[in-house]
Amino acid sequence: MRQEHRCDRTAARSVRQEPSRESREEVSLEGHGERFTGADAARVRSILARDADVCSLRIERLHVEPEQLASLSSALSRITHLSLIHTGLHSEHIIELGTGICQSATLVDIDVSCNELRDSDADVLFRAVARSSSVTRVRLGSNPIGCAGVEHLVRCLRQRGRLEGVDLRSCELAQNGALELAEALLDGCSVERLELSDNRIDDDGALGFGRVLALQNDLRTLGLAMNSISSAGCAALARGLAQNGSLEDLDLSDNHVCDRGARKLARALEKNKTLRVLSLDDNTVSYSGSCARTLPQDNRAAHLPKLDSIFDCVDVLRVPQ
After folding, report:
1. How far apart are CA 49 and CA 77, in angstroms?
2. SS3 state at 91
3. Distance linking the first and last C-alpha atoms of the chain
4. Partners of 166 in the beta sheet?
5. Cβ distance 228 to 202 under 8 Å?
6. Which of 32, 119, 173, 274 qualifies as a cystine partner to 199, CB 3.0-4.6 A?
7. 253 three-state secondary structure
């Protein structure tokens, strides 16, 4: 059995998991499905007690029992980042975790991706986040919380007003969940980085987020990859993008976008001045239909060079300087 315990320097991550400029000391324990033991918990507590620079705890692919999670509750009062990934979390764990979140004045980022959490667990978690004075980022990817789980997130947002990042990729939200979240954003709730990939969102959902882009300038990152958005949905997003003044990253990879949708986005980019990354890979966009090819020549030099990249299914296109 290989179980790694390390304390090292690592980069903090955003809602799209891109490196940021901040760094932190991390305690990281990784395994292959073994139990997280009392000895492991004792070691974590010891490291945190003697090293004031440690502000992140990551446990991955270790089966954590509720009592072991409870034994770490004191750790939440001194760390800023907590990751419990592939750890078999369920209802009993979330009760303990919710208590720790409410008691912590330092915890900023919670990652409980790839567990067994349901909508009732999302209820407990988001109630705790709503009461927290510090948590700004929540990652629940690959947990089957469904549309009912989104209702709990929306209630949290209405109480808090704002979260910096929410990751709900592969959470079985479907159409109704996406639309409910879009309505909350239109009603004044704010999220800067929103990840909704792989949730069976179709053109109606894209229409909702197109309205969000048109009427709200808080979103900086919107992840809609691996959904069922066609060129009709792209047209709705393009209308919003043309009026938006905040979005920097839009991921529409692995949808059902064709040349018509890509051209709609291209025309929106003639007016939009903030977008830096537009991902369209794994769609049926031809080379001639790609965004860089459809923009008028006089707009390429003025506008597109600020984009980091535009992806289509063929190539990465870069505009000549």
Report:
1. 11
2. helix
3. 54
4. 138, 194
5. yes
6. 173
7. coil
Beta strand extents in the chain (DSSP E only) = 4-13, 19-36, 54-64, 81-85, 109-111, 137-139, 162-167, 190-195, 221-223, 249-251, 277-279, 309-311, 316-317
Return mean pLDDT, the chain.
84
> Whole-angstrom Cα distance, residue 175 to residue 68?
37
Which residues have C-beta within 8 Å of that of residue 294, sequence separation ≥ 6? 262, 263, 266, 267
**pLDDT mean over 205-231:** 96
- Answer whether 256's CB lies under 8 Å from 229's CB: yes
- What is the DSSP annotation of 229-244? -BHHHHHHHHHHHHH-
Question: Hey, is 10 helix, strand or coil?
Answer: strand
Distance from C-alpha of 115 to C-alpha of 203, rounded to nearest angstrom: 29
Point out which residues pair with 276 in neighbouring strands.
none
The per-residue pLDDT for range 54-99, each reduced to its tens digit, is 899 999 999 999 999 988 887 788 899 999 999 999 988 999 999 9
Would you say 254 and 281 are in contact if contact means Cβ atoms under 8 Å apart? yes
CB hemisphere CA count around 180 (13 angstroms): 17
pLDDT for the residue numbered 10? 33
Which pair of tokens denotes residue 158?
């209405």
In this predicted model, what pLDDT tens digit does every residue of 177-192 receive, in sequence order?
A: 999 999 999 999 999 9
Closest CA to 143 of 181, 110, 177, 114: 114
Residues in the chain, how many? 321
The answer to pTM > 0.85 is: no
Q: How distant is the alpha carbon of residue 100 from its chain centre?
A: 22
